Amino acid sequence: MSGTPEVIGLFPTPFMRIAGALDRPLVAGLVSHFSAHARTLNNSSANLSHTTMLKPSDSPLLVTAATAITPMLSEFGALMFGERLPWALKEMWVNLLDTGGRQAMHNHANSFISGVAYLTPTHPDSRTVFMKSPGGTEFSFKNDHAGVVTGPYNAEKWVSPQPEPGDIVLFPSYIMHAVPPNPGERRITLAFNAIPTQLDSWGYKIGFSG
Hints:
Blueprint: E1 16-18, H1 24-34, E2 40-41, E3 48-50, H2 60-81, E4 87-97, E5 103-106, E6 113-118, E7 129-131, E8 157-159, E9 168-172, E10 176-179, E11 187-196, E12 198-201, E13 204-207
Antiparallel strand pairs: 1-9, 2-3, 3-4, 4-11, 5-10, 6-9, 6-11, 7-8, 7-10, 12-13
Protein name: Fe2OG dioxygenase domain-containing protein
């Protein structure tokens, strides 16, 4: 008599969601202050604009946000690298996605952990979508038709959970992601990238500073 089959997910990709990570007064302050500073238009969507790249030292509001975010980076980094390392926020920026705006598929270079803090309510149709990188190592011929049941091992896209203002998500910077066209009201997020102080590969250490 054969045993019960066991399915094991090999090499899963971590994704961390922290509900209510930023308190309401901080969220309100970030929205009020940075809504007027997002003047850089996005190349792919006329209804999407950004602030310049910011550092925590650029505003007391960002210092408070960084204080809340940094311990989460250590926890998430331990999943990626197997060790709780000191982490630093490399850059932060605010995105204003107005009705009809979208964010094209992209990932974040020159960082290891990326994250999004949601500052306003998000329409369900404009939740952040994560996807497999084009030209991956899976089979190039797909089984794709109306009768296919989509699951974690054959899906090409994953729609993140419905966020609330103050929620934060963390993910490896290499993961491709996008935001579909926004049919709702203005959607404001604070995005950020982070790097560890150093990585050690059997005595060969690379340090990061800045």
